[in-house]
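Exam revision sheet. Question 4 asks you to relate a sequence to its structure. Input first:
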Amino acid sequence: MADHGEIQYATATGNDLPAHETGYGQFVQTIFIATLLVVNVLFGLAIGGVLGHWLPGSLILLAGILAAGISAWTGSRTVSIAMVAISGLVLLFNAYSS
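Answer key, structure tokens:
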């Protein structure tokens, strides 16, 4: 067999742990906002498609997208959480008013 010589291992210089923590925080924030956006879309489609109230359903869809954009822009989760709560209340109101 051929002699391959000595194995060389490359190691990174410096500690980039803060960069990894920042990237992980951004990933968690993105997944959180995207999950709440999907919940808002499902609430809007339930209001419009199942209950037949397309005006409030479409408003929930648009407001959910707007809330996700604001949450992504500001880095706050409060807007998306509040929008899910409002969407749930609108769903309950429309379900009991039918």
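Marking note for examiners. The mean pLDDT is 90.
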